[in-house]
Amino acid sequence: MLYDLTLRFQEDLYITIIIRQIYTRTFHNPTFFSRSRLPFKLHLFLSMSQISQTALQSLDDASRKEILEFIEAENSKSKVQMSIHNFTDMCFKKCNENKQITSNSLDKAEEQCLSNCLNRFLDTNIKVVQALQGQQ
Questions:
Q1: Which residues constitute the domain of residue 50?
Q2: Total domain count for the chain?
Q3: pTM attached to this predicted model
Q4: Given phi > 0 = left and psi -120 to 50 = alpha, else beta, which region is 76?
Q5: With contact defined as beta carbons under 8 Å apart, do 67 and 56 qualify?
């Protein structure tokens, strides 16, 4: 059980690192945080349960492997997008609580708050992963 949790959290750590890279590249782009919409559209991808096992078994090994790798890659992309959506929503609500939206860009205080919120969120996630790895 702990091994499964650790694997899941190692994957989350990898996703966290990717999120930090994406976020730092796009954070200073004034159109990234639109107050009227969320930054990413969430996509639903195929999962193994949605693929007929008989259809999968009828494929040759190379095709089956390619399909499974594609599904795994799309699921990873989906997890990254969902994580970005979650922390963006959480931090935006925290930093703009009860504020009137007056422009289509962030002021300096909002930008600093969002940056600090993201860094605390990601650092906490990394610490949790490291603590779980230390328990092995």
A1: 2-134
A2: 1
A3: 0.49
A4: alpha
A5: yes
